[in-house]
Amino acid sequence: MAVAWNATRGVACLMLVLGACAREELVATGGCDDFAPGDVVITEVHANPDGSDGDGEYVELFNGSGIPLTLDGLTLVSSRSDGTGAKEHRFFGTWVGAGDYWIAGNVPRDSMPPHIDYSYGDTLGSLRNSNARISIRCGEQIIDQVSYESTADGRALELDGRFAPDHELNDEASRWCTTPEGVDEVSPGNFGTPGTANSPCAFDEPEGGCLESGVRRAVRVPNPGEVQFREWMANPAGADADLEWVEVLFSAEADLNGFQLGAAPDALVTVVEQDACFPVGAGERVVFGASPAAASRVDAELGFSLGNSGERSVVAVLNGIVLDQVDYDGTVEGRAWQLDPNDELCVTPTQDEYISGNFGTPGESNPICPLVLGPGMCVDEGAPREIVSPSPGDAWITEWMANPLEVGNRDGEWLEVRFDRAVDLNGLVLSDLSSSTDAIEAEGCLEVAAGAHVLFARNTNPIENGGLERVDLELSLSLNNSDETIALSIGNQALDSVSYERSKAGIATQVDVLGNVCDAAQAYGDGDLGTPGAPNPLCP
Q1: Of 404, 401, 399, 400, which is closest to residue 505 (Cα–Cα)?
Q2: Which CATH number characterizes residue 103's domain?
Q3: pLDDT tens, position by position, 45-75
Q4: Same domain membership, residue 176 and residue 118
Q5: How far apart are CA 259 and CA 220, in angstroms?
Q6: Distance of alpha carbon 16 from alpha carbon 134, whole angstroms
C-alpha cells in the first residue's frame, strides 16, 4: 500500500488500486459530500491563551477516517452553545494524514509557530472563552461538534487522552479536561498538546493510592483497550458457585486495586479491595475464580455469578469507565467460552481438560476456534468454500465387482465411479434396491480431478480385500450377485445408475467410454479380473 502525491491538486491519495483518488479528488475540487461524521474529530481547543485572546488560539483535529484526507471544502465554525453568533472559515489547500493530528490557529500566515499547521487568520475573530461551540461542517452536515462551558487562562481544553479520539465520545463534557500540570509550554504562558496525543484527564483513584514494599504510591490505572476478556467458564461440570472463573488479559502494566467485574455496568462488585498494590504486568493473564478450586491457578476472587442461559454479559469497570465487555448466548456444560488469537468467539474445544470434566485454558493462551461451516460448505487448505457438487453427466458408475472369487463377498466387493469434471465427493450417496450408503460427510473438501476413477470398497485392507492397492472410500453397500440396481445420487438428484441380471464369480463388470458393458479380462491383485481405480479398456 503506497501514498501518491497529486501535485496538480495538492492532495494525498491512498493508492489502493490504480486511480483510487476519487474521494480525495472530490474533496480537493471544493466538494466534501463524501465526508462522514467522525472522519474528522475535534480533540483540543485553546480558546483562552495567556494574554490577549485571538493570537495563539487554535483548534486541533484528528483524522479518524483511516485514509489521508484533504480538508478542502470543510468549514470550521465558532459560535455560542446555541449556535448563534456563528463565524465561519472554509478550509482550502490543506490535507491531514491518516491517524494524524492537525492544528488550525489564529496566527499570521507568514509567521506560523511550529505547532500550527494552518492559519485561519482572523476569520473567526476570537474564540469564545465560555458558553461556546466549535463545529466542523460540510454544508449543513455536521462532521463533528463540541461544546464547552468555560476555559482556564493559558490552558487548552483536551479530550481525555486515555481514549481513542471519537466524535461521539467528545460530545460528553466529562471526557474533556483542562491541560493538567506537568505539560510543557506550547508558547510562553500557554499549555496544551497540539499535534500529539492528549493528556489523560484526572481521575479518582483509591484514596491514598496503594502500598508497595511499605511505600505508598499512585495506583496505575489501565485504559480501555488495555484490558480484554479472553475466556470465561459460566457453566462448569460441578458446583457453579465454586468452579466459575473469568480470565482477563492486560496489555499494559496496571494495578487491580478498585477493579470491578459484573454482569452489567450497573451490577458490579469490586473484586480487588485492599490497601496493598495488586500489580499485573503487560501481557499477563489474570484468573478471577469463584474459589481456589475453580482452576489450576486462581489469582483473585471472582465475586459474582455468571449466567448459564440466555443472552449474558461480563463487564470490567474501573473508576466508572467500562474497560471491556463481552456478550454470550447460552453455555455448554464443562466448556468455557473463549476469544481465540484471531478474536473469534467460540466454546472452547475439548482438547484441554484443566480439571476433571472441564475444558479450557485458564491463565494460558487460547487455541484457535474450530471453523464453523454453513450448509454446502467445506474446508479447502484451511479456508471454507462452497462444495462443488457433480451434476448429471459429470459422474458415471463404470465398474463393479459383485461376486469376488479370491476372497469372500464381504471383503472383496468394490465399485468404481468415473468423474468427467473436477468436483467434490462431499454429499454423494450410493444405493441399491434394498439400502443406501450414508451421504459422504467430511469437513474438508474431498476434491477429485476431471477424469478421476474413484474406488469404493467393502474392505480397505489390501491383504484382505483381494489385493486392491488403493481404495479411496469405504463402501457400506452389499452388492447382490444377481437382479441388482446400483444408483449414484446427491441430494434429491440422480447422477447415474446401472442394473445387471447376474454376475460372474471373480469377474468385474465394466462400462467403457462408449457406454458398452462387458466382462473384465485383466487380472488385478490376487487374481480376480478387473481394472479397479483405472480406465477401462474398450469392450470387444
Answers
A1: 404
A2: 2.60.40.1260
A3: 999 998 777 678 999 999 999 899 999 999 9
A4: yes
A5: 11
A6: 33
**What does DSSP assign to residue 207?**
T
User: Would you say the C-alpha torsion 291, 296, 299, 303 has a positive or negative sign?
Assistant: negative
Give me the domain span that covers residue 146: 2-191
Q: How far apart are CA 468 and CA 412, in angstroms?
A: 9
Beginning with the edge strand found earlier in the chain, give each strand of the sheet holding 101-105 in spatial order.
118-119, 101-105, 58-63, 40-46, 157-159, 176-178
0.70 exceeded by pTM: no
pLDDT of residue 31: 66
* Cα of 243 vs its chain's centroid, Å: 29
Q: Do 409 and 355 belong to one domain?
A: no
171 and 56 both lie in a single domain: yes
Grid coordinates 470465561 are at which residue? 232
15 domain residue, yes or no: yes
Asked if residue 245 and residue 121 are part of one domain, the reply reads: no
- Same domain assignment for residues 160 and 14: yes
Band of residue 201 on the pLDDT scale cut at 50, 70, 90: confident
The three-class DSSP label of residue 109 is helix
- Rounded to an integer, what distance in angstroms lies between the CA atom of residue 428 and that of residue 289? 49
CA distance 91 to 40: 13
Phi/psi of residue 509, nearest 5 degrees: -100, 135
